[in-house]
């Protein structure tokens, strides 16, 4: 049974933003263009949380587009709501251009630290980013999603927060999922539990695809000009049980995704290549953890990935999931991994600040955010900066392309 506070239901509890039937359309144009392109009016889908996903074609590379979203009740109704925004498109693979993007992870709704949301978003909005990546745990279902309606409620309340709404209306954004925004902590397909009530693992996969701007597979790669290509990977859909003994048959990525990753990395001629993973590949991680590539639970597949990355030029790893900031260098392969850290101080933790290990190049048990700058000057320069939640620079890693 699911109980709400007396006098409340799913449509009236704190953070509720219940959907309605209606129609929406988009108007968009590149900056400097006076002519708007307009999509047809489309009905929202009540079975997909009253959402509608548009796929825009014919966009020019390396442009900033202005966007207007309009809504009405039905085909006879007047426009009752509008929202303005913008987004940038990637430069083509022949264009050499400085690129700046940011990454965040571990976003707990109870851990808001700013009126209307989170401190990191006003700071990031001021940077004129080219794009943003959320590396998983966008929301936390664990204690607040015991059926599908409650799962939708988690997305509604998070993305109606003023800081989040303002930021994502202005910045091209990519999203990965991890355990908490799939189902619950350390979850995988087939685990037996009554903890999540009526809400199932497969429903978690379905809801994520409905809520997020994803066209095909949840693992994908994007080229941003001559000097940068990123890989976003899927760590839940194809995962073996965490409890399974490690070996050649145990996987997080699955055979198809691993082959895709190796093939597309080999095909890339980008100066810098970045794997952005929802979970660590290098670590170090806590000795009690057994659910990612950096520890013994999935060591075999982790070694395959590390060996492959070590043979690439200028390839780095960015990871979510860990609630502390770090930069580490694998002592065996020399691969550098950047842990973003949680998006608020209240949500940080999980490591002892005094536990500085030889592989650590930087360690800070604190919340914040990370930016990555790719500069084509001098053959290519990567700069990775960790910031506090207030936007104070805490550390910078800088390296020339080799």
Spell out the blueprint of helices and strands.
Layout: E1 23-30, E2 37-38, E3 42-43, E4 64-72, E5 79-88, E6 99-104, H1 120-125, E7 131-134, H2 148-159, H3 162-168, E8 173-175, H4 201-211, E9 220-223, E10 228-232, H5 255-267, E11 272-277, H6 299-310, E12 315-319, E13 325-329, E14 336-339, E15 360-364, E16 369-375, E17 381-387, E18 393-400
Parallel strand pairs: 6-7, 7-8, 10-11, 11-12, 12-14
Antiparallel strand pairs: 1-2, 1-3, 1-4, 4-5, 6-16, 9-10, 13-14, 13-15, 16-17, 17-18
Helix pairs in contact: 2-4
Which descriptors would you attach to this protein?
single chain; 402 residues; Purple Acid Phosphatase, chain A, domain 2; 2 domains; seven-stranded mixed sheet; globular
Write a structural description:
By secondary structure, the chain is α/β, with parallel strands linked by helices. It has two domains: 23-86; 90-400, Purple Acid Phosphatase, chain A, domain 2. The chain is built from six helices and 18 strands. It has helices at residues 120-125, 148-159, 162-168, 201-211, 255-267, 299-310, and strands at 23-30, 37-38, 42-43, 64-72, 79-88, 99-104, 131-134, 173-175, 220-223, 228-232, 272-277, 315-319, 325-329, 336-339, 360-364, 369-375, 381-387, 393-400. The strands form three sheets. Strands 9-10-11-12-14-13-15 form a seven-stranded mixed β-sheet, with helices on one face. A hairpin with a 5-residue loop joins strand 17 and strand 18 (393-400). Helix 2 (148-159) runs parallel beside helix 4. The model has no long low-confidence stretch (mean pLDDT 98).
């Amino acid at each position: 049974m699911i109980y709400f506070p007396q006098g409340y239901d799913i449509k009236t509890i704190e953070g509720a933003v219940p959907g309605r039937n209606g129609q929406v359309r988009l108007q968009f144009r590149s900056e400097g263009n006076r002519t708007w392109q307009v999509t047809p009016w489309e009905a929202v889908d009540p079975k997909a949380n009253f959402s509608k996903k548009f796929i825009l074609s014919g966009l020019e590379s390396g442009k900033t587009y202005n966007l207007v979203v309009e809504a009405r009740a039905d085909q006879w109704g007047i426009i009752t709501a509008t929202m303005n925004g913008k987004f940038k498109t990637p430069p083509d693979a022949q264009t050499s251009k400085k690129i700046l993007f940011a990454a965040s992870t571990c976003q707990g709704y109870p851990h808001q630290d700013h009126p209307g949301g989170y401190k990191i978003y006003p700071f990031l909005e001021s940077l004129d980013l080219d794009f943003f990546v959320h590396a998983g745990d966008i929301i936390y279902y664990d204690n607040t999603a015991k059926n599908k309606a409650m799962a939708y409620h988690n997305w509604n309340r998070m993305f109606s927060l003023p800081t989040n709404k303002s930021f994502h209306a202005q910045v091209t954004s990519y999203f990965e999922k991890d355990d908490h925004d799939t189902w619950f902590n350390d979850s995988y397909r087939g685990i037996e539990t009554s903890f999540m009530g009526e809400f199932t693992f497969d429903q978690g996969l379905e809801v994520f695809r409905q809520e997020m701007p994803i066209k095909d597979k949840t693992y994908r790669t994007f080229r941003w000009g001559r000097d940068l290509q990123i890989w976003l990977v899927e760590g839940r859909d194809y995962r073996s049980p965490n409890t399974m003994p490690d070996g050649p048959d145990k996987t997080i990525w699955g055979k198809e995704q691993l082959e895709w990753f190796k093939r597309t990395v080999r095909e890339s001629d980008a100066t810098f290549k970045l794997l952005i993973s929802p979970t660590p590949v290098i670590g170090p991680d806590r000795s009690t953890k057994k659910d990612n590539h950096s520890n013994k639970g999935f060591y075999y597949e982790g070694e395959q990935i590390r060996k492959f990355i070590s043979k690439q030029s200028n390839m780095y790893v960015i990871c979510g999931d860990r609630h502390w900031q770090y930069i580490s260098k694998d002592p065996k392969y020399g691969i550098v991994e950047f842990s973003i850290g949680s998006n608020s101080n209240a949500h940080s933790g999980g490591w002892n600040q005094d536990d500085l290990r030889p592989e650590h190049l930087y360690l800070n048990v604190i919340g914040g955010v990370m930016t990555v700058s790719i500069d084509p000057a001098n053959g290519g320069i990567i700069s990775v900066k960790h910031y506090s939640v207030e936007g104070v620079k805490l550390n910078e890693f800088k390296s020339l392309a080799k």
